[in-house]
Amino acid sequence: MQNTLEKTENKKLLAWVSEIETMCKPNAVYWCDGSKEEYDRLMKQMLDSGMATKLDSQKRPNSYLFRSHPSDVARVEDRTYISTKNKEDAGPTNNWKDPQELKETMKGLYNGCMKGRTMYIIPFSMGPIGSPIAKIGVEITDSPYVVVNMHIMARVGQKVLNVLGKDGDFIPCLHSVGAPLKEGQQDSNWPCAPIEQKYISHFPEEKTIWSYGSGYGGNALLGKKCLALRIASSIAKEEGWMAEHMLILRLTNPQGKKYHIAAAFPSACGKTNLAMLQPTIEGWKCECIGDDISWMKIGQDGRLYAINPEAGFFGVAPGTSYKSNPMAMDTIRENTIFTNCVLTKDNDIWWEGMDNPCEGGIDWKGNPWTPESGTDGAHANARFTTPAKQCPTICSDWENPNGVPIDIFIFGGRRSSVVPLVSQAYSWDHGVFLGATSASEATAAALDVKSKLRRDPFAMLPFCGYNMADYWQHWFEMGDKLGDKAPKVFYVNWFRKSSEGKFMWPGFGDNSRVLKWMCERIENKASSNETPLGYMPLVKDLDLSNLDISESTINELLKVDKEAWKNELPDIEEYFAKFGDKLPARMKAQLKELRNRLG
After folding, report:
1. Which one from 269, 288, 341, 519 is the annotated catalytic residue?
2. Which residues of 254-382 form beta strands (DSSP E)?
3. What pTM was estimated for this model as a whole?
4. Which fold has domain 11-51+76-240?
């Protein structure tokens, strides 16, 4: 495959490409231009090889299904490394390896790893091209699957190289599936390396990413979690901004007043559902700006402005339905890549939790499947990759290069007990404490999480590119800079269950009722109750119009169980103890204040 792309005169980039070509020894080198013709050509190549399946053109135009190897279905946190010269700079929540040692190991794996394959060079922009908040990366990969996904998830091609110019800076991202081909060897439908050879490595001091052995999701689409969170969070600390695992939405009240909300939940805890919310209260409107990542800088007016650095959604498929997220279902009607879903008998896709039952088809492993098979047809972390611009509620400002001003931060997790429906932080420092002590019951988004409940501060546990205690200190310092222009902070839990094991809050569009109270709080138009956890609404403060929910259920959702919270304190203390002397004094003060409020 040849291309006559104008390419670049950037000497640093050309030297790096030459160095990687020499090490990886591909059969050919191809510079990606980001065009539709390129996308279609690579898809045809994967169709012809058996890697991709084209879905029914009437039901799902220009959409394709892929099946990964069973060992390569999610992020592998045990094989993800933050590699700094000083181990303490990575912190106790990250896997650390010495940079020199790790590079030697990986260079051995990279040596000749692209034999028999094409080396693709993907210039990409995270954020609107030319935005003052955007960053440029270049991913080198031997996976055409990665190329087509990056077409959707980032801005790709010559226009990025034009902005980069002769001497612009970029973040080098090297990826290989780790499966060289001997001459005449038949390729597999999902090439990857054994789990013990998978490495997703980050070198924050050099602003470099090396990934080997996995072709899946955030392990391979290096603009996503690797650059947009792990490396960007480190850069953001240096430069005085924020790179966060947060959705961004615009909520407009009946009077036309706009509020911008950024919310952090662990993967598979409802970020995409909230980002595409359809309010059930009359006169309120919600628009989506981003569903996963937020980059935020302080503007000239002293407020915090956010962009969504991604161009697409890489969403968890199971559980997504017209009941849970109709906007997502409409977004994925065309031009979408599906991975590890069921292929139905009529050549469409299906997963558990979709609106209609499935009679049967081919499961994510490629085997015949029916609902009676006794196994899930789709993998629990099956995904869709789809362009953000297709979302029916995409905001007109979603690509505004200057971003949107954030009014509210929300933290949350999946907790079936203890944590009430909503509370508001007493102060910025209290809000940082709420974010730092976030906990969630385990989800399927990570391959190797064993514990039932884990602390996931700011939903950044797998994504913070440096010591988490330094990250908390950075949040405190950002609050100092923002002063009275700092967003207000709230904590939510949509997932409380009754003693019978049923969800107590209806969730989905009805979450707008909680958001409405937040907006009224920042306007000083809603009352609250002071509790040990923060300001909480009285039942009368929540708009429950046309909602079939009993007063006893609402009271239970807004109840603070002091004894249960006292039982949480030792777990928080044990978690904070991991950080030793690095734990910010202001965090210790917040823990002491919570203990005092609980009595």
Report:
1. 269
2. 258-264, 285-290, 294-298, 304-307, 312-316, 337-339, 342-344, 349-350, 361-362, 368-369
3. 0.96
4. Phosphoenolpyruvate Carboxykinase; domain 1 (3.40.449)
